[in-house]
Amino acid sequence: AGSSELAPPPKPAVVSVGSELILGERRDNENLRWMCSVLHERHLPARVAVTVGDDPDVIAEHVGHLYRGGYAPIFVSGGMGGTHDDRTREGIAAALGAPLQTHGECFEILRESYGRTGLEFNEERRRMAELPAGAALIPNPSGAPGFSVEGKIYAFPGFPRMLRPMLLSVLDTIAPAVPPEKRWTVEEQLLPVNEGRVAARVEGLASALRAAGSSASVGIYPSNEQFQAQVKLVLRYQVGDTSARERFDSLVSDVRQSLE
């Protein structure tokens, strides 16, 4: 008889690479936010999301820790160009204990691409074909391919116009789009009370949702502007989970009525 054990749930992780991100030179990290958002939409929410600089040792440390800890799939963006500070390929190879080697198919794709544009296929551009041993290519209609290793680590360029279609194409194979009623949505409500006044009731709602087998979650966040006088309640739920929405709306209504 076959084993009745269920496969462990996936432990997705997102790694965003770029020294400009950890040095505070950018106001936000849109790639990280977008990747986490689209994974959540595909019912593959990230368990971990980290940002690291363009240091191959640090990349290797964090990707290796995730890999050895059973996290998969691991999605990495940024640091995939051919300049001196694009070190993601090197870092991932080190994380896996694998050598970097010229990927023949990737080399030919790059050589033909630069040949068509009339640009020199110089040493820096050739460097983009140096991939961890055993890597498989992820097609990029707009530039150099990304790559995957063991079907567990997926590496993409950091340019959003490249990253987004490439990641979506990967997700279409491992986490297809869900039907409309299973899609996640968010409901937010501002209440003119301090956090302590409603915390117990929100905790009660969270417990009730778990007890009902709902995948919805509820959060409570004090206002930055009116810390002691306003909170935001957030319900994250699947569109078809009308019971969760009704419970949330009822809590909000009860709190508002108690203030009258």
From TrEMBL:
InterPro entries per UniProt: CinA, MoaB/Mog-like_dom_sf, MoaB/Mog_dom
SMART domains xrefs: MoCF_biosynth
UniProt-listed PANTHER family: NICOTINAMIDE-NUCLEOTIDE AMIDOHYDROLASE PNCC, NMN AMIDOHYDROLASE-LIKE PROTEIN YFAY
Protein name: MoaB/Mog domain-containing protein
Pfam families: MoCF_biosynth
Gene3D superfamilies for this protein: MoaB/Mog-like domain
Residue ranges constituting the MoaB/Mog domain according to the UniProt record: 13-177
UniProt source species: Alexandrium catenella
